[in-house]
Amino acid sequence: MNILDRIIADKYKEVALRKSIIPVRQLENSVLFDREGNSLAEALRNSTTGIIAEHKRRSPSKSVINQKVSVQDVAVGYENAGVCGMSVLTDGKYFGGSLDDLLLARASVKMPLLRKEFIIDEYQLLEAKAYGADVVLLIAAVLSRDEIKTLSEFAKKLSLDVLLEVHNLEELEKSIMPSLDMLGVNNRNLKTFDVSIDVSKKLSQHIPDDFVKVSESGISNIEAIKELQPYGYKGFLIGENFMKTENPGPSAVEFIKALQR
Ligand SMILES: O=P(O)(O)OC[C@@H](O)[C@@H](O)c1c[nH]c2ccccc12
């Protein structure tokens, strides 16, 4: 079993457990459930920098990244830096995140928040809504076309934006459908952890123009962004590069300033 298979096997168990503890109607009755979402796709379309900054404490590829900063401070710092949105890892076992991180970020900022999670069940979309997300990630590597369709259509009903993530042409071709807002190319292979922005360059020509194109992972300098912009990318998802510093917010400020120069 590769790491992705392990994460997904654990995720099925976790979701079954969560469902048995918190019923759907409790999620639906939560204060945030009817909050009007903020569109990340819209923010990216109107931006010249397009940074989506991530809160990530640790990962299977890097182990510890940053266990010290508070998610509220990171959220406020990112918002002050002028990012288009923030990605909050909510997986606990492999990434050290939680739904409470999402809630605390929501309480601190207005910008669009992405629930960064391995989504396999509609229940997790209800959770995303109840904990204040505006956007959800769907990962083509672990979902069939039918699952992508069902999950993305349900997300749209909840007025969540959908970012669909692919890593190769086969995943991209099986995933194209109108219920997606953004197409993300993950430069990191989730099975081997190999990273290269060439993956984004290669796949860009196959992404229809109606989707906002996002390049994800392994972006550690503004040169990478300048290289990717001519390929039509409007969004850039950056985690480690900010999180590995003592103060992710100010790091994002510097990065965005440099990008605007
Ligand atoms: O820290 P990086 O290399 O900047 O990458 C951020 C983000 O793209 C990465 O965390 C990610 C992309 N897709 C995922 C799916 C699950 C978990 C994590 C991810």
From TrEMBL:
Its EC number is 4.1.1.48. Residues 4-248 form the Indole-3-glycerol phosphate synthase domain. Pfam families: IGPS. Keywords: Amino-acid biosynthesis, Aromatic amino acid biosynthesis, Decarboxylase, Lyase, Tryptophan biosynthesis. SUPFAM superfamilies: Ribulose-phoshate binding barrel. It comes from Aquimarina amphilecti. This is Indole-3-glycerol phosphate synthase. GO terms for molecular function: indole-3-glycerol-phosphate synthase activity; phosphoribosylanthranilate isomerase activity. Pathway: Amino-acid biosynthesis; L-tryptophan biosynthesis; L-tryptophan from chorismate: step 4/5. It catalyses: 1-(2-carboxyphenylamino)-1-deoxy-D-ribulose 5-phosphate + H(+) = (1S,2R)-1-C-(indol-3-yl)glycerol 3-phosphate + CO2 + H2O. One of its GO terms (biological process) is L-tryptophan biosynthetic process.
